[in-house]
Task: structure prediction
Amino acid sequence: MVVLKIFLSLLVLIGLTNALKAPMSCSGQPNELAIGTSLKFMNECSNGKLFIADNVDPPLLVVHVYGTPYEMGFAHGLLLYSQVNDLIPQFYDYIYTMIDPYIAFLPPDIRQIIEEEGVDAALDYVLELAMPYIPQYYFDEIQGLSDASGQSYDDLMRVHMFPELIKAGCSMIGAWGPAIEFTSEGSTLYQLRALDWDTTGPFQKYPLWLVYHPNDGHKFGMLTWSGFIGALTGYSNASMGICEKVWITHRERDNRKGIPFTFLLRDILQWDKDIDDSLSRIASASRTCTIYIGLGQSEKPIQFKALEYSYEQVAVWNDQNFPSYDVHPLMDGVVFLDKHVQPSEDPCLGSLIEQYYGQLDAENIIRNIAPVHKTGDMHIALYDFGHNLVYVSNAGIKPENGSAEEAYKRAYTQLNMTQLFAEPKPSI
Result:
């Protein structure tokens, strides 16, 4: 490790910026595309503003919403009226055609409902079980979204139960301390969230960075899609970041009587000031399905933790107690999970992290690690806590004949969260 650190420091001193040769276990290529930094103002309403980043196609929508839950939902639906009304019907067409391969992984009661009554009935069943555990402000926000967009409230609620049925294989990295020793001044923590999920659907046509300025709680931003208010990927002005990954190999039972995990993750962004708050929230929550969760914080103590999250128990890992095996070495200041079923047998991501140890910054992670590991099919977010920047990329639109271009191959947009969190409310 000492030799590796000396080598990396020499690279910094002599200014070598080209990617190191990728390990033999990796099959991807570096991403050298320019990173967009500008946002163009498009529209506003009494409680919202719409910007776009048009360095990519389709453009990334950046929407600010302000006020009460209902007011924020209404602004969302008003500013993205056409996008919400395009996506929701396509969403239902998509799930009707793609659910079959996933049925075998679902609990027996839900499998039976889908086979006998259809997907809508299964989503209604999940919602019925979850309703007592969902805070009222989510219902209020979705009501506002429905009223402004004209989309059915019931349809929108079903959409928000979908992640409880179908989860995704993803990668996550948290890097701090000695793992970023030779990065730029002011660096504290870098967190990768790479969503590896099916790109044959309609979602990537409507990418959205949704910035909340609520009357109560922290400001926060989420990488999502038009019409979806649950959190899979997000960052708050309390210097907290979240991510998640499916946990396939668990031997525990799922439970549908609890808070949907996308709402719990969003509550972390809005209400929690540090990881201790989040761990208390998770421990006391009525948990549902089994996933891994990644939590980062850059306020001292700077740290990243990965959790095994399930109905029955929660296991918390850091850089000292994370399960270690041949292709998953323990390293000070790093916690990571690759895109595969855990424990993974693929040495690629671990090898890349070892190779860039000491320089695990935004540049190397988005250019030389995520694309070389080929992780982040649907979308990617890289949180640079020290500089309050978020980098995002979304998959391309699937052509009629062919495959959608994966997010890790495409151009990123840099979001200055200091500026976004300071964006004033419209005066109209």
The two ends are 58 Å apart (CA to CA).
